[in-house]
Amino acid sequence: MNDADYEHAVAIFYEALYAFGYSLAGNADDAGELTQETFCRLLTKGGQLRDPSKVKSWLFTTLYRVFLGWKQRRARLPHFEISSVEGELPVITPAHVDVLENDAIRDALLELEEHYRVPLMLFYFNDHSYEEIAGILDMPVGTVMSRLSRAKGLLRERLVAHTIGVESVNKILPFERKSN
């Protein structure tokens, strides 16, 4: 789907989609979110649409499926106002937050393969330069830089996975990793 087709679809179907979203969600904010998410998916997945004449039904079906996904998520993860459950919440001090963050970082670091973990630890925890790490590990400086870059990305992914409670990064990133 090209930009002109996308803009044409927005111009023609926006109001009807918004009204449909409003009838499902019952409020303007959620209707706007549903409509925006639907058009976002059209933008990203519209190229998969085999028959451009069916864009209207695709949009309405997509909006409805997004709405059903929201309902399922809300059933699994109900929303509570903090004031209604404030007495049940544990007291969290800044020291507790530091311990939790340090534990998460340590756990995520330990999940990294050794050839990524070692240069990362030498650089960030022991303040070695690229050249010093290359000498310690007997590898070219370019390889050290590459592994540090890759290690930072992998660490970031694992921290996100820990934050959202996913046990394995492969559950949210299903493709296979290739080692350097």
What report would you give on this structure?
The chain has nine helices and no strands. The chain folds into two domains: 3-76, Rna Polymerase Sigma Factor, Chain: A (Orthogonal Bundle); 89-172, Arc Repressor Mutant, subunit A, CATH 1.10.10. The longest helix is centred in the N-terminal third of the chain and has 23 residues, at 3-25. It has 180 residues and is mostly helical. The chain is flat. Residues 168-180 have low confidence and may be disordered. It has helices at 3-25, 28-45, 55-76, 82-85, 94-111, 114-124, 130-137, 141-163, 169-172. The two termini are 37 Å apart.
Question: Short description, anyone?
Answer:
With 180 residues, this protein is mainly alpha-helical. The chain has 2 domains: 3-76, Orthogonal Bundle (Rna Polymerase Sigma Factor, Chain: A); 89-172, Arc Repressor Mutant, subunit A (Orthogonal Bundle), CATH 1.10.10.10. It has helices at residues 3-25, 28-45, 55-76, 82-85, 94-111, 114-124, 130-137, 141-163, 169-172.
SSE layout and pairing:
Blueprint: H1 3-25, H2 28-45, H3 55-76, H4 82-85, H5 94-111, H6 114-124, H7 130-137, H8 141-163, H9 169-172
List keywords for this structure.
180 residues, mainly alpha, 73% helix, Arc Repressor Mutant, subunit A, flat, Rna Polymerase Sigma Factor, Chain: A, 9 helices
**Gyration radius, rounded:** 24 Å
CATH topology annotation of the largest domain = Arc Repressor Mutant, subunit A
**The first-level CATH class name of the largest domain:** Mainly Alpha
Number of strands: 0
What is the percentage of strand-forming residues? Answer: under 5%
| Model regions low in confidence, pLDDT < 50 over at least 5 residues | 168-180
User: From N to C, what is the helix and strand string?
Assistant: HHHHHHHHH
Largest sheet: none
| Secondary structure: helix percent | over 70%
The H-level CATH homologous superfamily of the largest domain, spelled out, is Winged helix-like DNA-binding domain superfamily/Winged helix DNA-binding domain
CATH architecture of the largest domain: Orthogonal Bundle
